[in-house]
Amino acid sequence: MKLRTKARGLALQALYEIDLCNHTPAEVLQARLEETPLPDELADFARQIIFGVLPLTHDLDILIAKYAPEWPLDQIAAIDRNILRIAFWEFAIQMETPMKVAINEAVELAKLYGSDSTPRFVNGVLGSLARHQEDIRSNLQKA
Hints:
- The chain is an all-alpha fold.
- It has helices at residues 3-21, 25-35, 40-53, 57-67, 78-94, 99-113, 118-130, 133-142.
- It has one domain (3-142): Orthogonal Bundle (N-utilizing Substance Protein B Homolog, Chain A), CATH 1.10.940.10.
- It is 77% helix and 0% strand.
- It is globular.
């Protein structure tokens, strides 16, 4: 597994736990890093994802629901929802990861952590979101 994919996986695990259990982000990140130690640069990358996604969770969810209405948000599995949030944050907010790379990485996470249908689902939703990237970016920057 590529190192940045490993960092994304750690961030995904943390966001999933925070989403379902409401544990504090700092404690969850610390526990994940104790279980899966990462070099400082990758730990910082995972931290950026977690603390980048969390304050925008509501806004990300609204935009996912708006631009992918075929998939009602309340029916999306928690792991799938968090994979989408990470990829969306990476290409629409952070803007350091090219859109195609963020989508490919999300599909890889979906293969590792999701159900058999998750990779296809994640690719489809992110493809829909990618077509509206500029509008989404401007909406999130206002938030």
